[in-house]
Specification:
The complex is a heterodimer of chains A (230) and B (408).
Chain A (H helix, E strand, L loop, with lengths): L3 E12 L2 E13 L4 E5 L6 H8 L7 E6 L2 E2 L5 H11 E4 L11 H10 L5 H14 L15 H13 L5 E5 L7 H16 L3 E6 L2 H4 L4 E6 L2 E7 L5
Parallel strand pairs in A: 3-8, 3-9, 6-7, 7-8
Antiparallel strand pairs in A: 1-2, 1-4, 4-5, 9-10
Helix pairs in contact in A: 3-4, 3-5, 4-5, 5-6
Chain B lengths: L1 H17 L1 H39 L3 E6 L3 H5 L8 H10 L3 E9 L4 E5 L2 E10 L3 H4 L4 E4 L4 H5 L4 E4 L1 H6 L10 E4 L2 E9 L4 E2 L2 E2 L3 E5 H8 L8 E6 L5 H15 L10 E5 H44 L1 H9 L4 H37 L10 H27 L3 H6 L2
Parallel strand pairs in B: 4-11, 6-8
Antiparallel strand pairs in B: 1-12, 1-13, 2-4, 2-12, 3-4, 3-7, 5-8, 6-11, 7-8, 9-10
Helix pairs in contact in B: 1-12, 2-10, 2-12, 2-13, 4-9, 10-12, 10-13, 12-13
Classes of the chains: A alpha/beta (230), B alpha+beta (408).
């Protein structure tokens, strides 16, 4: 049974009097522990793909089974719960809470699960330890470098032990040295058993992945497997 | 629920502290509103408590009967009067009276002179029974006795204020003062009573009743007050009714005529006063609640700004799993915290203000805050916070996560 099963997914946006088909009949199945990249130029439907996969948005039509559950037509609150349980987001601009320190940022998703403070702290420390940031736990985001901020974000994604790590241009705001460091971290996480989905337009990043799906005009134009080049 | 509340409070405190000055300015409307309410309430409560005490001291078992002329009649030159026959009528025909005394005022405040010192004072004639009725006792010397009145002795009893103003020695008994071109021997000094609603109760000169009558001359023109005490306080309504019907009959009033006299009880006076205080409190409270309304709008305004500022944060929280009620609660608790903070600061400020005002006005009773006003002030500010927090909080909770993440 595949972890993710998309069938005939469509997403339409109405803009003025014309309808934009951002996704136009996507069928794809992603297994557990895959390392997969969605690539494509701007306007190809990448972002919409990421929003649908991340349960931030609902498709206009089609079926989306995540972990065997159809999540295509859930309401906002149910989607929030799915996001909290199943998905770990890593964003291009890190998206850390600016007034919360590294530890609080990592603990944040556990609040919505109703985990008590002590337990939250313990889990968050484990996650921060995984990304080697234990010595920075009381730093605010603006006191951390870009690479460190992205590692905090990865720890925040890991702390809930989600089914999927969903990274949207995770190195887009980083220099090349830090990019290598972060991608190495993704490689390791995949080897440890996580399912990693990366949405990117950079071939270099995509090449880390074992499967590359190309999007064009809301359709899958290419889907091929390769050995990791890392 | 409790868990969510605790987590929301934690983040609300952090958020309020993060914008210290802005938070303070936001709450200012509430601060001023609550401070206003509390200052007014603490002053009026203090005043009311002290007045009640003073009326209690006056004696709740005493009645005063005085003549009453409607303004319409007064303009025609008609003057209602009470006279000695009314007094003896009440004395002989009403049961349950423990003591009764007439009071005859000089027609205008008269001059009293001692040596080169002169002063104006309230001068009236009364009998020995006044001592019991008005609880007025001589601190030095003696009070009036019946023979003083019968023989129209030229003697007087002075209040403490009069004694001081005339520059009489502390033991003034035996000195002579001049009242209306006649010499009076001082036979006693009254115990000081202090002020009642701004009236100095020690600024008075008491003469024997019949001495006063002889000073005033023409007997048919006199108008006396009658003060009496009842033996049993619960009997007051009966005594009042009896006195009323007797006087109406004696004055030849028909069914259509209004009373040409008034019977006042100490309780009535204190009730009247309470009514005035309550009205003042309500009016000021109404004005001040407008300030609270404005304060609430201020909070709503800043919360709306805050929601816009934190759109991206809200998006992040939603992306990592915050549901509508998490966001709603967070902003609602923040608004509540702001308004309660304002309420507490206002409470302290208002009390301080009340104390300050009470202290700066001489002889004003000390300010007191009743518990209900604290509960009311805090409850009302919490209410304002929630009511005006709902709109911004709902706006935040309803944000779309994708739009919110893309914001800014």
């Amino acid at each position: 049974m595949a972890l993710i099963e998309l069938q005939a997914i469509e997403k339409h946006y109405v803009m003025g009097d014309q309808t934009v088909r951002a996704l136009d009949g996507i069928d794809i199945s992603i297994a557990s522990n895959e390392y997969i990249a969605f690539v494509g130029s701007s306007g190809s439907g990448k972002s919409t793909m990421m929003n649908i996969l991340g349960c931030l948005d609902r498709p206009s039509a089609g079926l989306y089974h995540l972990n065997g559950k159809n999540v295509a037509q859930l309401n906002q609150n149910e989607l929030a719960e799915i996001r909290n349980l199943e998905i770990g987001f890593i964003f291009q601009s890190f998206n850390l809470l600016p007034r919360a320190n590294a530890l609080s940022n990592v603990m944040q998703p556990l609040i919505y699960r109703g985990v008590a403070y002590k337990e939250r702290k313990k889990l968050a420390m484990t996650a921060l330890d995984r990304v080697n940031l234990v010595d920075r736990i009381d730093h605010l985001p603006n006191q951390l470098s870009g690479g460190q901020q992205q590692r905090v974000a990865i720890a925040r994604a890991l702390v809930t032990e989600p089914s999927i790590l969903l990274a949207d241009e995770p190195t887009g705001n980083l220099d090349s040295r830090t990019t290598i460091e972060i991608m190495k971290l993704f490689d390791e996480l995949q080897q440890e058993g996580h399912t990693v989905i990366v949405v990117t337009h950079e071939a270099e990043i995509a090449n880390h992945c074992h499967r590359i799906v190309e999007l064009k005009d809301g359709k899958i134009s290419n889907d091929h497997r390769q050995d990791g080049v890392s | 629920m409790l868990f969510a509340l605790m987590e929301s409070s934690r983040s609300a405190v952090a958020s309020v502290l993060a914008h210290g000055l802005r938070s303070f300015l936001t709450t200012l409307g509430i601060v001023i509103g609550v401070a206003g309410v509390i200052a007014v309430v603490s002053l009026t409560e203090g005043l009311s408590a002290s007045v009640t005490d003073q009326f209690q001291a006056l004696g709740t078992d005493s009645l005063t009967v005085r003549s009453y002329t409607p303004i319409k009649d007064r303009m025609k030159g008609i003057q209602s009067r009470l006279n000695d026959s009314d007094l003896s009528l009440i004395e002989t025909r009403v049961e349950g009276i423990s003591s009764i005394t007439p009071i005859l005022f000089a027609r205008r405040a008269s001059q009293v002179r001692f040596g080169s010192q002169t002063t104006f004072s309230q001068i009236f004639g009364t009998t020995q029974a006044y001592q019991d009725v008005a609880q007025a006792y001589a601190e030095q010397g003696r009070f009036l006795v019946n023979s003083d009145s019968k023989t129209r002795r030229r003697v007087c009893i002075l209040g403490e204020t009069v004694r001081e103003q005339l520059g009489l020695p502390r033991n003034a008994v035996g000195e002579y003062v001049e009242i209306g071109k006649e010499w009076f021997k001082v036979i006693g000094i009254l115990e000081p009573k202090g002020e009642l609603m701004g009236f100095d109760q020690d600024d008075r000169v008491i003469l024997p009743y019949q001495t006063m009558q002889s000073l005033l001359g023409n007997q048919s023109q006199t108008d006396i007050q009658i003060q009496l005490t009842v033996a049993d306080q619960s009997n007051i309504p009966v005594v009042v009714a009896r006195v009323r019907s007797l006087l109406r009959k004696a004055h030849g009033l028909t069914r259509e005529d209004d009373d040409d006299f008034r019977i006042q009880t100490a309780e009535q006076l204190s009730e009247t006063f309470d009514r005035i205080i309550t009205t003042v409190t309500l009016v000021v409270g109404g004005i001040v609640s407008i300030s609270l309304l404005v304060g609430g709008i201020g909070i709503m305004n800043i919360m709306l700004v805050s929601v816009t500022e934190r759109t991206r944060e809200i998006g992040i929280c939603k992306a990592i799993g915050a549901k509508r009620h998490h966001i709603l609660m967070q902003f609602l608790v923040e608004a509540l915290l702001l308004s309660l903070l304002g309420g507490i600061i206002g409470l302290l400020l208002g009390y301080g203000l009340g104390v300050l005002i009470a202290m700066s006005i001489p002889s004003f009773p000390p300010a007191t805050i009743p518990l209900w006003s604290i509960v009311l002030a805090l409850g009302f500010s919490a209410f304002v916070g929630i009511i005006f927090g709902i709109l911004p909080a709902a706006k935040a909770a309803n944000l779309d996560p994708i739009d919110a993440l893309r914001y800014g």
